[in-house]
Specification:
Distance between the termini of chain A: 20 Å
Structural class of chain B: alpha+beta
Helix content of chain A: 25-40%
Number of helices of chain A: 16
CATH superfamily of chain A: Amidase signature (AS) domain
Distance between the termini of chain B: 78 Å
Shape of chain A: globular
CATH topology of chain A: Amidase signature (AS) enzymes
Radius of gyration of chain B: 31 Å
Largest sheet of chain A: 11 strands, mixed
Number of strands of chain B: 17
Largest interface: A-B, 41 and 28 residues
Strand content of chain A: 5-15%
Number of helices of chain B: 15
Strand content of chain B: 15-25%
Radius of gyration of chain A: 21 Å
Number of strands of chain A: 11
Strand order of the largest sheet of chain A: 1-3-2-4-6-5-10-11-9-7-8
Structural class of chain A: alpha/beta
Number of domains of chain B: 3
CATH class of chain A: Alpha Beta
Number of domains of chain A: 1
Order of helices and strands of chain A: HHEHEHEHEHEEHEHHEHHHHEHHEEH
CATH architecture of chain A: Alpha-Beta Complex
Oligomer: heterodimer
């Protein structure tokens, strides 16, 4: 079998068994990154990747058996890997070198991963098309005239285009699942707190999570186990045992209760994704699952809720990029106020500025109760509604996006229509619930569509089980 | 001034006495080389997250309990957003809606000053202004040092009361082990809110705020200056502008810093990186039980149990270090009155002479010397001399005893007494015939001490003299 055809688990097994060396695998993927540079999926291929692979081969020979021993991995550019640039695809951090390892990088390195490249993204993870990258748009892996989605567009494209067997993304409002859907790969946003955020450049701290993008559901479960686990550096990470997600994939959905949201039913008519969604439901039903009607009445308010909470946190999180310390300082600045104003005016892109202003507005005195507090109350209401819904079903089935990937430039000047890209994905972030997107069906141009499975917090196992079953049915 | 009431509220910051900073494991230590005591968290690197130091919360609870505050069952940390170069994250983690402590009061001589709250927050770094060529540099060592902020109600009405309040507060914090309050290191800083109103009026005047006063003297002067300034403006028909003013200690006046209209909106919101802190009642009770005696309680104990005067107790409890010293000496030599006398005279005189805080004799050594006086191994005069020698040269008490007393052996002392009596028949005669034989007796003991340069055991000497004069 060719290295590029192996799943993550197969590659890991082959490397451990000595059938493939880490060097061979790494060389293969590093070459692919270079060969497919025109996709602009990765911003930098690390020049020490091959050396690290050689070191890993020595360790494997000496008996090292990490879960990712010798396996090449790509990380999104907002994940800190010590001594490597982490730019968040922003001019502001173009030359910023990480001073320490994020918890997820540390965990992957402990399991023997070889991190080969950093992936393009929307600047500071704000966007749904990767068009907000300061370093150029990433192309859809399947159609270069189309966007790869975002903000983890580089990571999703990298996996779809075969630049790595696995890539890490971050998901604040669909930023893993939507690009996964657009590129035909699998991406999960784990339960909030399942994965430590230490060393992830923060956008909206209370709702974002790191998660893997992979070719298969099983690969995804395998990878999430590596990334999971509380960190003493992150109060919001959950200090609980990490389950063996793979073992929760049972190969059957018999007797499972699949929830259908009334609110989705009322929106989906005529959408490009409708057919795929209905077929997936039918498939589950045909295989012994019970379809249950449930309701989250405030579902349609998830989008406005998100666009208050996320910018509010973002505006505060991005304050540290002030030109004083490590970030870019404008050459024009003559005093401290100019350092702030000019550096930030030059350093941030349009969408980032828009969200900073939005966030400042909703937090400002006089508006705080009307916006931020109301959004937090709404979040609580949604959690209560979801609790009722999950009392009646094991998982919810939702589309990931309304349709297939759109054209580059198509929505670039229409922020609201861009925000609507996250219509179906944002709920999971607001709830803190685990949600996966898996490829299912094709759109009118033959490009992949995605189906989402959402479960109550900590039930990644249920998510993976259903996802794996759908994947088997779809791919045959 | 007598036509006006002055209304003062204080905001006091004190650095807490923890080993590490409030959100990271860097040391909480003053005086390190710039930017050597920092980590990703306290310099606000991307991706770094705060993790609360539970000890800091405990200390704020402790502070609150010494002042009768209510301890919130749930405390929340918020972000206070503003740009300033010493604030690495562009927000300070502080508390607005649910501070750790609510209410409470501090008793002054004539009144109770009510507290509004005490909360926990992080200190910022420090700007260091260099020459033109160097410009301004930033030292982040202080960034993330745990700080308690105490806010009073506007119950203070004079500079004297303000200083009395701060003195009491400082005493409590030091006694409870909450803070060291080293003002010269910025360990305690005070913001003063002040307004004036016509005497007896119940309508508050417009207030101004003076920030970061770092000595009681500055607070005192700043209040008097600012009250007078406001009174003069009102007398001349002017209006007070709500503003922040800077106190200039060198020129002894306040200068306008910024008007309220342009002041920042801090856009507080709960820090999403932090969990709300639950404070179980059992913990509060445990902390309450662990509280040491506060100065007022200790003073009462000294008066009632040790029989010290109000004056003595006052001095001994004013500074915790001195009270601790006193208690330490008592643990070796349980004579409260004698120990108090020595500390108040000999020890404090020496401290005063040297203009230093340090007591350069250990409690144990002082106790040893006092015991030697008690069993008359050394005279009081020689004991003082011994104390000086220990203080100045660090000599050992055991070695000094040989020089100053106890080493004239009994046979030699007996012979000496015999000789003195033999050589002074007139005195012997006087003793036997005098109306005041004790006076003559003292003359004899004086002779013995003179001959032995005070080293003789006075009790033994007296015994021999009495025997031979019979």
């Amino acid at each position: 079998m060719n290295i590029g055809e192996m799943t993550l688990i197969e590659l890991a097994d082959n490397i451990k068994a000595g059938k493939v060396s880490s060097y061979e695998a790494t060389k293969y993927y590093v070459d692919k990154c270079k060969e497919k540079a025109s996709l602009n999926a990765v911003l930098e291929v690390f020049d020490d990747a091959l050396d690290k692979a050689k070191e890993m081969d020595e360790k494997i020979k000496a008996g090292f058996k990490g879960k990712l021993a010798g396996v090449p991995v790509i990380i999104k550019d907002n994940i800190l890997y010590k001594d490597k640039i982490a730019s968040c695809s922003s001019k502001f951090l173009e030359k910023y070198v990480a001073q320490y390892n994020s918890t997820v990088v540390e965990k992957m390195l402990n399991e023997g991963a070889v991190i080969i490249a950093r992936a393009n993204m929307d600047e500071f993870a704000m966007g749904s098309s990767t068009e907000n990258s300061a370093f150029g748009v990433t192309k859809n892996a399947l159609d270069p005239t189309r966007v790869p989605g975002g903000s983890s567009g580089g990571s999703a494209c990298a996996v779809a285009a075969g630049l790595a067997p696995v890539a890490l993304g971050t998901d604040t409002g669909g930023s893993i699942r939507q690009p996964a859907s657009y590129n035909g790969v699998v991406g999960i946003k784990p339960t909030y707190g399942r994965v430590s955020r230490y060393g992830i450049v923060a956008f909206a701290s209370s709702i974002e999570q790191v998660g893997p993008l992979t070719k298969t559901v099983k690969d995804n479960a395998y990878m999430l186990e590596v990334l999971s686990g509380g960190s003493e550096h992150d109060e919001t990470s959950l200090k609980i045992d990490v389950p063996d997600f793979l073992s929760q994939i049972k190969g059957s959905v018999k007797g499972m209760k699949i929830g259908v949201l009334k609110e989705i039913e009322s929106m989906i008519g005529g959408l490009e994704v409708e057919n795929a969604y209905r077929q997936a439901l039918q498939y589950l039903k045909d295989n012994g699952a019970e379809i249950v009607d449930v309701s989250i009445p405030s579902f349609s308010l998830t989008l406005p809720c998100y666009y208050i909470i996320a910018p509010a946190e973002a505006t505060s999180n991005l304050g540290r990029f002030d030109g004083v310390k490590y970030s870019r300082r404008s050459a024009e600045a003559k005093d401290i106020d100019e350092i702030y104003v000019i550096s930030r005016s030059e350093g941030f892109g349009k969408e980032v500025k828009r969200r900073i202003m939005l966030g400042n507005f909703v937090l400002s005195s006089g508006y705080f109760d009307a916006y931020y507090n109301k959004a937090k109350k709404l979040q609580q209401k949604l959690k209560n509604e979801a609790k009722e819904a999950f009392a009646k079903c094991d998982v919810l089935l939702l589309p990931t996006t309304t349709g297939e990937a759109f054209k580059i430039g198509e929505k670039a000047n229409d922020p609201v229509s861009m925000y609507k890209e996250d219509l179906f994905t944002i709920m999971a972030n607001i709830l803190g619930a685990p949600a996966i997107s898996i490829p299912y069906g094709k759109g009118k141009n033959g490009l992949p569509l995605g189906i989402q499975i959402v479960a109550d917090c900590l039930n990644e196992g249920l998510v993976y089980n259903v996802a794996d079953f759908i994947e088997k049915g779809y791919r045959g | 001034m007598q036509d006006f009431d002055i209304v003062i509220g204080l905001e006091v910051h004190a650095e807490l006495k923890t080993n590490s900073k409030v959100f990271c494991s860097c040391k909480n230590q003053f005086g390190q080389a710039p930017n050597t005591n920092c980590c990703p968290v306290c310099v606000g690197l991307p991706g770094a997250l705060p993790v609360i130091n539970k000890k800091a919360i405990e200390l704020v609870i402790k502070a609150g309990l010494t002042m009768g505050c209510e301890i919130n069952e749930l405390a929340i940390f918020e972000r206070k957003n503003y740009f300033y170069p010493d604030l690495a994250k562009a927000y300070q983690i502080s508390q607005l809606v649910r501070p750790i402590c609510l209410g409470g009061h501090i008793e002054l001589k004539d009144k109770d000053v009510r507290l509004n709250r005490i909360h926990l927050e992080e200190d910022a770094g420090k700007l260091v202004h260099g020459t033109q060529a160097i410009g301004t540099l930033i030292d982040y060592n202080r960034g993330g040092v745990p700080l308690m902020e105490l806010v009073t109600e506007p119950d203070i009405t004079s500079a004297d009361e303000a200083v009395e309040f701060l003195t009491k507060l400082r005493q409590k914090l030091i006694y409870a082990g909450v803070a060291e309050c080293k003002m010269e290191q910025g360990g305690m800083r005070c913001d003063v809110n002040i307004s004036v109103k016509p005497k007896g009026s119940d309508k508050l005047g417009q207030r101004t705020e003076m920030k970061n006063l770092n000595s009681f003297k500055s607070v005192y002067r700043a209040i008097n200056y600012e009250a007078n300034r406001q009174i003069e403006i009102i007398k001349n028909g002017g209006q007070i502008v709500q503003e922040t003013r800077k106190w200039d200690d060198n020129h002894e006046k306040s200068i306008s810093m910024r008007k309220k209209e342009t002041s920042s909106d801090y856009r507080y919101f709960p820090d999403p990186d932090m969990l709300a802190v639950e404070i179980p009642r059992e913990d509060v009770e445990r902390i309450r039980k662990s509280l040491p005696l506060m100065p007022d309680q200790l003073k009462a104990k000294f008066i009632n149990e040790y029989g010290l005067s109000e004056y003595e107790s006052d001095i001994l409890t004013k500074e915790k270090d001195l009270a601790d010293y006193y208690n330490d000496v008592l643990s070796h030599y349980n004579q409260p009155k004698i120990v108090s006398n020595w500390i108040l005279t000999e020890i404090l005189n020496k401290v005063k002479d040297e203009e230093s805080e340090e007591i350069k004799i250990s409690p144990c050594d002082l106790a040893k010397i006092l015991k030697l006086v008690e069993d008359k191994t050394v005279t009081r005069t020689n004991a003082k001399e011994m104390l000086t020698r220990v203080w100045e040269n660090g000599e050992k008490v055991e070695a000094l005893v040989k020089e100053f007393g106890g080493n004239v052996d009994e046979e030699a002392l007996k012979t000496l007494v015999e000789n003195i009596i033999k050589n002074n028949p007139k005195a012997v005669e006087d003793y036997k015939t005098s109306d005041t034989p004790e006076k003559v007796f003292r003359w004899f003991t004086g002779q013995v001490m003179k001959e032995t340069r005070g080293k003789a055991n006075a009790a033994k000497a007296e015994e021999y003299i009495r025997e031979l004069l019979k």
